[in-house]
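User: My instructor asked us to take a sequence, write out its structure as tokens, and then describe one feature of it. I'm not sure where to start. Here is the sequence I was given:
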Amino acid sequence: MKTKNLIITVFFLAVFFSFFSCSKDDNPVAKDQEVSLTTKDNVSVDKWVYFSFETNAEVSGIDSSNFQTSAEWDIAFHSRHVRLNGGASGTGQAGAVDLGEVDWETVVTAPSSGFVKDVWIDSILFAGVGEHGPIMVGTFLNPAFETAFTVDLSTYPPTYLPSRHVYVVRSRAGRYVKIMLTDYYNDKGESGYITFRYKMAAEGSMEF
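Assistant: Let's start with the prediction itself. The structure tokens for your sequence are:
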């Protein structure tokens, strides 16, 4: 009888730990994500690609008329520039800290302060060439991410290279995400298709 009870106990423990392990593996919070944007909405200065960390997907239906009031997105991209759902760009809690060129694996805890909010920046987006040269216009964006790429102006068009800086973002809902922008080009070599790596902390946690 004792042997039978022991076998039953071992069986249920094995099922429990197997279920726990699968649940953890299936949980996007517990592992790194790599995203390559499939949309390039930077043909016009008012077009951005919006993305949600909660759904791990691009978000459609957001444009210049509603991005500041929408709760559907966390981060957005236009060329090499980044916008977050917070500050001047939205009603969320989003902000970012630039940790510099540090090892990804060493960033295990989100900072408790230093988060930069979105602001309006004048004359930062290229809007074409006019009679007197390049036309530059302003936009809402997050200044911390202006270091995400370096620009080589010796080529035409300019070449954008990732700086490999690691950032910690506070999402629209207040969750912490570590993120690195890793490429400016898709598999075909076409520019403006950002690839990034991120890992989101569990709700209420600052640990990655």
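For the description part of your assignment, you could build on this observation: Residues 36 and 195 are 4 Å apart (CA to CA). Try explaining in your own words what that tells you about the chain.
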